[in-house]
Structures are given as structure tokens and as C-alpha cells.
Amino acid sequence: MSFDEIRGICGTIGMIIFIATFLVGCFWALNPKNKEKMIENGNIPFNEE
Known about the structure:
With 49 residues, this protein is mainly alpha-helical.
């Protein structure tokens, strides 16, 4: 294998990992059971505790 072939394969693998991480993050953030936790975390800067 040449350097160009390896570079192309690594680029493709990196893109697949990035897309998979992005999709998992979107699924987690939009999951209805996490709604209360997300609202609570969004109000952290406004709490004066």
C-alpha cells in the first residue's frame, strides 16, 4: 500500500467516526427522557446557589 492509499483510508475512517459520534450525540440530546436533565443543566448559569 502506498502512502496515498493509507491517507485516503484514514480520512474515510475518521469521517465515519465523526459522523457516528455526531449522530449519537444528537440522539442523546433529543431523547425525551433526557429533557428534564437538559432543562436543569441549561439553568445552571442563572442559579445563585
